[in-house]
Specification:
Layout (H helix, E strand, L loop, with lengths): L4 E2 L2 E2 L8 E2 L8 H22 L5 H16 L2 E8 L5 E6 L5 H6 L1 E3 L3 H9 L3 E3 L22 E10 L2 E11 L6 H46 L10 H13 L6 E4 L6 H11 L7 E5 L5 H9 E2 L11 E2 L1 H4 L4 E5 L6 H13 L1 E3 L6 E3 L3 E6 L3 H7 L4 H7 L2 E4 L10 H16 L5 E2 L1 H9 L5 H15 L4 E2 L6 H4 L12 H19 L4 H7 L4 H11 L14
Parallel strand pairs: 10-17, 10-18, 11-14, 14-17, 19-20
Antiparallel strand pairs: 1-7, 2-3, 4-5, 4-9, 5-6, 7-8, 8-9, 12-13, 15-16
Helix pairs in contact: 1-2, 1-5, 10-12, 13-15, 17-18, 18-19
Length: 545
């Protein structure tokens, strides 16, 4: 005959506190009041324990300790359902060793604990020595010398039983077992809520971790050096420099005109370095004034200035264990140059409004399109700061100096924008390609990308024609060699075509065209005057004509 005492539950699983029939109403009022006060104190302590941010196992062990200390509910244990859902494993049992806990398993319906898990109903065993279902797998219970009562209730939320919590009580005829069970059920519901919150947080954290890995993988794929388009000698030199400097912590200065891909190179260095798992933080130094940039970089204390309603970590702190990319560093004020010089030399800095010195191990990569040597000569850029950031310079060639890369870039941008624009472009007409190759591209690769996107939008077929290109590419007609006339006339026409093409690429600047043609400004200027070439027509801004 089974000696189980099933307690009638008012309500259903998972809807808050379970209420049970209790004989406490027959106790004297003062005893009821004392127990009620003690139970409230226990629930307060349990709620405080579960409300802390300590690891869950530590919190649950503390809850069992509170029940033992305050209500004499001893040998507490918490068993949770295995991921497979076929057995219970004891996760928390402060008075058992790790080896003992690992040995204890309950199949669904096995023993008192397995029966509670299977039925979702709490069970009271008044005398474990008289109960065949009681398996006594806790070796600390010395039967029959010590007679004990056993209480086990389910841990459940949203109709799902996820485990059990059980306790012992020294046997006594007058022991309020039903009241103990009611108390244990309330604690179980609190544990279930904590498990639910932590489970949801864990699911969210796992999702964010997977999303972070996916985005990081996409970034690494996107910013691999082999994904930087170009096969010219200038770009091959850039690839070599990236490989040489990536694995070190050396400060890098990337130089080049606007639109040449300086940030792309900075990303490539970061993702090839040992810091690739750390953050990549970008700051556009030209977009902020001196005060805002100071706070943006170094952070500030609460009340450091008007509007500083709370303290803020700066970008340097956010870039810890990663890379800080300072774009357009030529716009730094002398004061900020001094503060950043300290970061570069001592790896130290102070927040705005703070006297406390902080340290950083962030790697700094800087970029500029300015002539820093000229700025140093003019006294607007500190010489010591210039030498400190110019440790390993990488110079990106302008697009006009890598004309042979233009067809590769065209193909790349056509493929990149095809899906976004829902276009199928299979051909670029020879005239359109020639027009793009002879253009000066003052906006460099960024301008070429915008040009391709516009041409794809205007194209109604599968081919980009010259008429689809922006007017700025079609506004200047370059001379062509017809093949007629004497040798001297054909040579002069060919020379004129070469000079005009160079002027077109160099925005009508004679000195720049001369450098590209590996000549001198005096010789090119002389030929321009002799041939009657109007170099001003090749300038992008023609308001001065």
């Amino acid at each position: 005959m089974l000696h189980l005492c099933y307690i009638i539950v008012r309500g259903t699983l998972g809807n808050g506190l379970n209420m049970y029939e209790s004989p406490l109403e027959h106790e004297p009022v003062d005893i009821q009041g004392q127990r009620h006060a003690r139970e409230l104190e226990v629930l307060y302590r349990v709620s405080r324990a579960l409300g802390s941010d300590h690891p869950q196992k530590e919190l649950l062990a503390e809850v069992l300790e509170i029940l033992d200390r305050e209500l004499s509910l001893r040998n507490g244990s918490i068993a949770l359902l295995s991921p497979e859902g076929d057995e219970l494993a004891v996760e928390i049992a402060p008075k058992l060793t790790v080896t003992q806990r690992r040995r204890i398993r309950y199949r669904m319906g096995e023993g008192v604990t397995g029966r509670v898990m299977e039925t979702g109903r709490g069970i009271i065993v008044p005398k474990v020595s008289e109960e065949p279902l009681f398996l006594n797998r806790f070796e600390r219970r010395q039967l029959p010398q010590e007679e004990i009562s056993f209480i086990c209730v389910p841990i459940a939320f949203e109709q799902e039983v996820i485990g059990t919590i059980s306790v012992d009580r020294p046997f006594a005829e007058s022991a309020p077992l039903e009241a103990d069970m009611r108390m244990l059920s309330i604690v179980a519901s609190m544990i279930a809520n904590d498990v639910r919150i932590r489970r949801e947080a864990n699911i969210k954290q796992q999702f964010l971790a997977r999303e972070n890995l996916r985005l990081r993988s996409e970034l690494e794929d996107r910013y691999r050096p082999e994904n930087i388009i170009g096969d010219s000698a200038g770009m091959r030199a850039v690839y070599t420099a990236i490989q040489q400097v990536a694995q070190s912590n050396t400060t890098v200065l990337i130089r080049g005109e606007s639109g040449t891909g300086k940030e792309l190179v900075a990303h490539a260095i970061h993702y090839l370095s040992r810091r690739s798992k750390g953050p990549f933080i970008r700051v556009n130094c030209a977009a902020l004034n001196e005060n805002l940039l100071d706070s943006e970089l170094f952070g500030h204390e609460k009340g450091a200035f008007t509007g500083a309603v709370r303290e803020r970590d700066g970008r340097i702190r956010e870039a810890e264990n990663g890379t800080l990319f300072l774009d357009e560093i030529g716009d730094f004020s002398p004061l900020l140059q001094v503060k950043l010089l300290r970061v570069l030399q001592e790896h130290e800095y102070q927040r705005v409004g703070s006297n406390t010195t902080a340290t950083t191990n962030a790697r700094i990569i800087a970029a500029t399109n300015r002539d820093l040597e000229e700025a140093v000569d003019r006294g607007i850029f500190r010489q010591d700061f210039y030498y400190r950031i110019n440790v390993f310079p990488i110079s990106l060639p302008p697009l006009r100096a890598r004309v042979n890369d233009i067809p590769l870039l065209i193909d790349h941008f056509v493929k990149q924008h095809a899906a976004k624009l829902d276009k199928t472009i299979r051909h670029i007409s020879p005239s359109a390609t020639e027009m793009m190759q002879r253009h000066g591209w003052p906006g460099n690769v960024r301008e070429l990308e915008n040009c391709i996107e516009r041409a794809m939008l205007l194209s109604t077929g599968d081919t980009i024609e010259a008429r689809h290109l922006p007017p700025t590419l079609r506004s200047v007609e370059l001379p062509t060699v017809t093949g007629g006339g004497s040798l001297a006339e054909q040579v002069e026409a060919f020379e004129r075509s070469i000079i005009c093409s160079a002027l077109q690429r160099c925005d009508g600047k004679i000195a720049a065209a001369a450098r590209e043609l590996e000549s001198t400004a005096r010789i090119v200027g002389h030929k321009i005057r002799r041939m009657g070439i109007d170099y001003k027509q090749y300038r992008r801004n023609r308001q001065d004509r």
